[in-house]
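From the pipeline queue, job 12 of 40. The input is one protein chain; the requested action is below.

Action: predict structure.
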Amino acid sequence: SSDLGALSLSFLQFRDTRCAISNVMFVENDAATGGALFAEFYLYVDIKMEQTHFGDQSLENPSIQMNHTTFSGNSAVTGGAMELNGVPALLRNISMEHNRAEDVGGALALVGLSVVQVVGGRFHGNEAKSGGALMVRERCVMHCIGCEITNNRATENGGGVCIVCLFVEKQPVVFECDA
């Protein structure tokens, strides 16, 4: 396992940097964190050294916009296909299948104030110790609209989704589906 998979991105708050990915396939990449893609967002901190999204309209103009992208057979210790650390992202029509994480987030791991909206996502056959498909850590926001989460496996917590909220009372996580 190398330190980096196929793509590693860093963003600085208020610098207006963006990454757009469309019609790309990430297949059989391996890394310690984020098998195919790792992204981090450096935030300004307040006087108490707490991270803040002050002045940042996260999903109005997210750092990562991804359309019609496939992640298959990727692996990592955390975030089998992708790990986002504090990154605002809009993911449309993505497919994450047969990815694996030794620890958490078989397909996708969200940490450090990540704000992510997935529209039309497919998460199938992913594996991890916790969060077979998705790991949503404290202080992250996840909107999953019209997603299919099937046949994922975790040896400990959350075969499909694991949501960890240790420090804050409220953590917005929304799953919207057709009834």
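Job complete. The two ends are 42 Å apart (CA to CA).
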